[in-house]
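Objective 1.3, modelling of assemblies. Example input:
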Amino acid sequence: MTLAPSRHPKPQLRVLLCAPRGFCAGVVRAIESVERALEIYGAPVYVRHEIVHNKYVVESLKSKGAVFVEELEEIPDSGVPVVLSAHGVPRAVQEEASRRKLFVLDATCPLVTKVHREAEIHFRRGREIVLIGHAGHPEVVGTMGRLPPGAITLIETAQQAEAFVARDAARLSYVTQTTLSIDDAAQIVECLKRRFPQIVGPHKEDICYATTNRQEAVKKVAPKVDAMIVVGAPNSSNSQRLKEVAERAGCPHAVLLQRAADIDWQALGAIGSLAITAGASAPEVLVEEVLDAFAARYDLHVETESAVTENVFFPLPRVLRPIEAAE
Ligand code: SF4
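Predicted structure (tokens):
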């Protein structure tokens, strides 16, 4: 039986794909660390915490033999590799791993490690440290846990920055989470600098290149479209920030969703233009899935809006590199 062509042509939809979007160099390195460990050592490979905040990625690694745990105590004493997630860990986790002689592969993003080093240097120089970030996020837990309790004070908002009381204003420093809103962080830093002119901070902020570039791309596109879809997980900080940035930049309807099945077509209403981006932990295959869902309902005209070109690459942990590359 052949179906008669529909008498109602699909409505037109202009789609702007934000670039850059999706995977950053730290996420690629973390996922490849697990994949390489599985290739070299075989299953199982333990992974402490979601390697990156994306269910699709986690499920696909699980299907290859990765076993995800929240704490090292869930891992039996053995020579099985244990990969630490991209978000970084408190010092106590590394200490426990070395006491138990676990075979650790550290997939902490080098840009998170850089923040750890900055905090450690401030501490050694006798400075009180303010960490600008979101309470409970694993990166924040990791950074705060690099130093003894009380060494770092977490500040989440400009109001908290206004109310902060320094032990010694002449010996104060700050570091930031890597995945903050650029504008919110700038406001907090501005407040701290105004109140504590001697505060010491990074030469260039700690917000990473990937967070910065994805937010810039969203800012460029958001005012031009009727709606914006951010593909990413609700527990992904940089994905949440992209949705906020889109709203603040004037997009009337911004949504964060994990899969095409999550699209609320009714809430989307009648739109003539749509932008799509993806958080740093969301794979491109999920962007394609969303595009396919729209293509089933609309006649798409797809363009890419590019804010900047990225060419950042982080090598794998040394033991996972191919022999010739490790030398
Ligand atoms: S978002 Fe930034 S800090 Fe986080 S893994 Fe990616 S590059 Fe590293």
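The chain has a mean pLDDT of 95.
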